[in-house]
Request: fold
Amino acid sequence: MAKMIARCFSLIMFILIFCQAGAQENTDVIKMLAVHEKFHPVVSVERRDAYFNIYAMVLLPVPPCQAYALLTDYASLPGYIPGMLKVSFERLSDSMVKIRQVGEAKLLLFSVKVELLLEMEEIPNQRILFKLIEGDLEAYSGEWRLQEVSEGTKLFYSAALIFDQYVPTFWGRSMLEDEVSKRFEAVVKEAKARKSRVYPQCVVKR
Reply:
């Protein structure tokens, strides 16, 4: 039982890797954006049959072009995402990328490494979609979506996943909500740190 818990916990560390799911944003989560603390993530997790459906959103203090540049800087992920050890990627075309990620999670006395291979589809400054090719989940797909607002960028995340072994609903929901929140907070912190950077692709030509 302890081994199963450690393994499940380690898989949770990777639900924030860029994706496209068939699910739409949870309307209750969207409504919450108006009342939650600025730049603090809102996360909701639902269980439907074998799937855990995750919906999240946060406000980033940068325009969509800079937010997109951050999200597609895959090599930098180990530098600010907790538990991420290694990322390698292969660009297949201007809009398609394969990414292999290796990470580590710790729970009590256990430490487990997890590996995922994802196929990404990039739509500049608008969306980043993904699907699982192989790895330590039975199924995993989702999306990031960017929306320009006066304060910067609303970043929406939706994903659907199936663990490769049974996880109780209450435990799975609680852990996923906690882990997604932590990783969104890391993205917000990194966006603030990079706010003053100059991105050539984001300069408006006159």
